[in-house]
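Protocol step 4 of 6: structure prediction from sequence.
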Amino acid sequence: MSQAKSYYRLCKPGIVYANLLTTIAGYLLASKLDIKLSSFSGVIIGFTFIVAAACIVNNLYDRDIDLKMERTKNRPSVTGAVPLINGAIMAAGLVLIGTLMLLIMDNVLTMLIGLLGFSVYTTAYTISKRRTYHSTLIGSVSGATPIVGGYVAYSGRIDAAALVIGLMMLVWQMPHFYAIAIYRDADYRSAGIPSMPITIGKRATAYWMLFYTVAFALLAMLLYRYAPVSIVYLIVMGLVSIFWLALNLRGLFSSRIEDWAKRSFLSSLIVMLVMSLAIGFR
């Protein structure tokens, strides 16, 4: 693996791109496609850098448990492809540049939202991950900040629409990550991480996944009341919510719950993509 690719992988690009998508969706929702190049580019670069920095910190802190998990044992932070000090310097530089971008090109509130997400992910979530399955809920707070930050970068305020899209993103993450915990159960057991499936069981986790899927569907409908979205948005999100609800309902009765969980995980990515497109390009 080339050195440049090692540093790239250290940033968890999949997470970065997903958060970039929701950041853009939040901005487009607030702006109604009236894009201001300065604030738009500022929030994109700012949150990309801050999310990448948070992922680096998390990788560096989790080196010991990542070594015990099949899917993470080859991360650059584990193999030594990226030295600890280099990763720390990179994270510090990215969060500093990202913060300054949000402050200078957007507004103070957007900067504070970005720092909130960074702080929660690198401290409360990263530490609690080893101690309680509630870490997923804690971490979802940081995952909700990019879409809210994108909205606030244009609007300059937190209103009802900002709160609803933030909650939508928060509850979307719960079944998404619980699904991973179910089908990657062996990894979490090897690393000694108290995931929800390990702590209360896979079937009970499936019930919680359904609960959060229902919450997501209700919030998606509620956004129609508080944001400038069209009837097309309402129809699209209604259909995608029914699809996700039906799939996650099957998890309560599936005899092959790991296979079902993998399908639920992949479906959640489709839901997030459709949600972002429906919000941004209504």
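Step 5 (inspection) to follow. The radius of gyration is 19 Å.
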